[in-house]
Amino acid sequence: MLAMLGSIGMTMIILACALPTYNLWWPIFVVLFYILCPIPTMIAKRSQNADDGVRAPNAMFATIGIVLSSFALPIVLARASVIQWGACLLTLAGNAVAYTSFLAYYFGFESGDSSMW
């Protein structure tokens, strides 16, 4: 199920780039945010210091900033007339599907070790 959701999300993003109507590859840069998204949480989970009460909110803040940036990038590109609004909507839908699969993975497999949150 998770693989299917991830595939659908990436397919929507690739369609936003490759359809002949849009034919611009700027929306593919949201994939960088997919790579950056789990890094603050992984760093905060790896540290087992006394200041975990400080690291968890900082990691959550950084992760939320990365996720919001991945939703804001296509909107900014569409407002600046770099991409069309149809490509923007496909990218936003792909983001929603991809982040849904990330959340499903986290709550399905990683929530047993939720000592950080």
UniProtKB/TrEMBL annotation:
Domain of life: Eukaryota
Membrane topology, from the record: Multi-pass membrane protein
Keywords (A to Z) from UniProt: Membrane, Transmembrane, Transmembrane helix
Main localization of the protein described in the UniProt heading: membrane
Gene Ontology cellular component list: endosome; membrane
Subcellular location: Membrane
Membrane-spanning segments: 12-37, 58-77, 83-107
One biological process term in Gene Ontology: late endosome to vacuole transport via multivesicular body sorting pathway
A Pfam family this chain is assigned to: Vps55
Family classification: Belongs to the OB-RGRP/VPS55 family.
Annotated protein name in UniProt: AGAP008693-PA-like protein
Source species: Anopheles sinensis
Origin organism lineage: Eukaryota, Metazoa, Ecdysozoa, Arthropoda, Hexapoda
